[in-house]
Amino acid sequence: MNRDPAPHHPLVQRLIDARRVSDALFSVVKPEYLYERPIRERHRIVFYIGHLEAFDRNLFDERLCPLPAFAPELDQLFAFGIDPVDGGFPTDQPSDWPSLDAVHDYANKARKQIDERLAEFEFGSGGMSTGSPDQLMHVAIEHRLMHAETLAYMLHQLPLEMKAAPQDAAPKAASARNVECSPMVRVSAGEAVLGMKREDGRFGWDNEFGEQRVQVEAFEIDRYMVTNAQFRAFIDAGGYGNRAYWNDKDWAWKEAEGVAHPVSWSQDADGKWMLRTMFNDIPLPPDWPVYVSHAEASAYAHWAGKTLPTEAQWQRAAHGVPHAPSGNYDFRSWDPQAVDATPDNVSTFGVEGQYGNGWEWTSSLFEALPGFVAFPFYPGYSANFFDGQHYVLKGGSARTAQCMLRPTFRNWFQPRYQHVYAGFRCMRAL
């Protein structure tokens, strides 16, 4: 699956580069384990091998160029999304899926078919208008890059012996530093801008359009993301056992699932905390950001006498961050780094590291911006999740593509989903 299309228009080259990222991720899994399901809410790994190519084929067909069906049953099989149906868990068995040879054959043929047409296509007409060739290419590119991050955190949960570490995955050693206390910085009252105008002519997903200007009162916010050391203090203080810190739904989930610590934490025989990275178990690095669910982040914030910021507050706090900040993103690393490792990735107010190193939970439900219009070629991308059950995340992680670090980008997940590379910082009203 490494045949490059030609000629290499910049958009085509970006698709090629995105394919290389996803192909490299699948190669991390030893072939005999590609039918595993590392996270019960998600499909088996083999699904995504077919899905990425099926998505492109289904998106481009008759919109960008005609792509006659050669395996319509597989187009349909690999077309459906990643969320469970009606809140349940998938019940399929490995035997329900085509053989690995059949899946690879489908993916190769789909990619070859697309490449042959892209080699003949001229881009540039229609700009970023709805359904234009350039817009469709951006959708295909970013969809694949989103899945590259989804696959990374899925594979993170796969047992270590099922993976083959690439050469760039050198083992990480725990840092000796300990960021025990995150100073809070003052963010002055002012305007936060969410989303963008359609007439700006930039690419964005449907939920990014509908510029909204929000007046935000002054507040304080953590300079850094909450660290493993800080979250350990919450655990040591009995935070997971104190009902007062949790809302009703989060407490019921925690009790039912037996959640007592972040999903990638464990304790060795001596009671020492360990962290599961992608390819190793290492002593818990105290100055890395903690990755937790919205439920756990909210409980910590309550314990600390603070709250999570709203989407508008987070955006206000990020005012003045350089357009291309330094940071841990764009697949540069498999792991986080210290929360204070990028002193030039800082906002006007002194808030550090908001882009990269971990998505950040907000207290805002994922909702439409004013004048929302769903993409007609992908109507369920956002609209299916305006359900009061998903919260906005901002920023990005080490496995987030650089193109999605734009200030308007909005991520979202359910509050009790632990697997995302997501942490948080707290705020306090003045």
UniProtKB/TrEMBL annotation:
The organism's place on the tree of life at top rank: Bacteria
Annotated Gene3D superfamilies: dinb family like domain, paralog of FGE (formylglycine-generating enzyme)
Positions of the Sulfatase-modifying factor enzyme-like domain: 182-428
PANTHER family: ERGOTHIONEINE BIOSYNTHESIS PROTEIN 1
UniProt protein name: Sulfatase-modifying factor enzyme-like domain-containing protein
Source species: Paraburkholderia phymatum (strain DSM 17167 / CIP 108236 / LMG 21445 / STM815)
